[in-house]
Design a protein that fits this description.
Helices cover 32% and strands 13% of the residues. By secondary structure, it is of the alpha/beta class. It has a domain of 139 residues: Alpha-Beta Complex (Spore Coat Polysaccharide Biosynthesis Protein SpsA, Chain A), CATH 3.90.550.10. The longest helix has 18 residues.
Length: 220
């Protein structure tokens, strides 16, 4: 059984993708992994680069540029996710990795060790560190909102970091080392069981939330 399936969605980021793949293949640790790159109709020769320099990776050209989720689903399906296969036939974990990310040598092994040690966890996400050592805002727990774009675009979150609006979870990390539930972002490792259960639970929720249609006519 494969330990880790890595899916990278690319769009016109050939040089960043090359650096990302080099870092992945320099990973240390006793685990098995495989990489699939799904390209969203790039025009910079990204796929040719992958096929020439990283023949061990699977390179897929998406039929259309359908966006991030669309391409990730293509990649996950190549490993059997979303096809009603038993857990034993799936990789133990799946990692959605952005092409602008470089992975430290022991990062993947450490994420797998965390997940193995904490079977109650469905997914884990790493801290993202910028080249200058600062925390990357992309690893925040919340999704961006129109208000967050306004505050960040105008620089208000830096001028007033302690104000009520800018100090919410959408702007500041309360504890960089805390472990707590959060929505699954890019660059996250997800347990195979979680990926199988999410579509089923969504289907059950959708079905149970629909009002039942009464048979025949109703009398007011």
């Amino acid at each position: 059984m494969l330990d880790l399936a890595i899916v990278i969605v690319n769009y016109n980021t050939k040089d960043l993708l090359r650096a990302c793949l080099r870092s992945v293949y320099a990973s240390e640790g006793d685990f098995s992994y495989h990489v699939t790159v799904v390209d969203n109709a790039s025009q910079d020769g990204s796929l040719d680069m992958v096929r020439a320099e990283f023949p061990q990776a699977r390179a897929i050209a998406a039929p259309v540029n359908g966006g991030f989720a669309y391409a990730n689903n293509i990649g996950l399906r190549t490993y059997g996710f979303g096809q009603n296969r038993p857990l034993e036939a799936l990789p133990r974990y799946a990692l959605l990795l952005n092409p602008d990310t470089e992975v430290p040598p022991t990062a993947l092994a450490e994420m797998l060790a965390l997940m193995d040690a904490r079977p109650e966890l469905g997914a884990s996400g790493p801290r993202l560190i910028l080249p200058d050592g600062r925390l990357d805002k992309a690893c925040r727990r919340a999704f961006p909102s129109p208000m967050s774009f306004v505050y960040r675009g105008l620089g208000l979150s830096k001028l007033f970091p302690t104000q009520a609006v800018s100090s919410s979870s959408s702007f500041r990390e309360k504890s960089e080392g805390a472990q707590r539930p959060f929505m699954i972002p890019p660059r996250s490792s997800t347990r195979a069981k979680t990926l199988k259960e999410v579509p089923r639970k969504r289907s059950e929720t959708s079905t149970n939330s629909r009002p039942k249609r009464k048979s025949g006519r109703s009398v007011p």
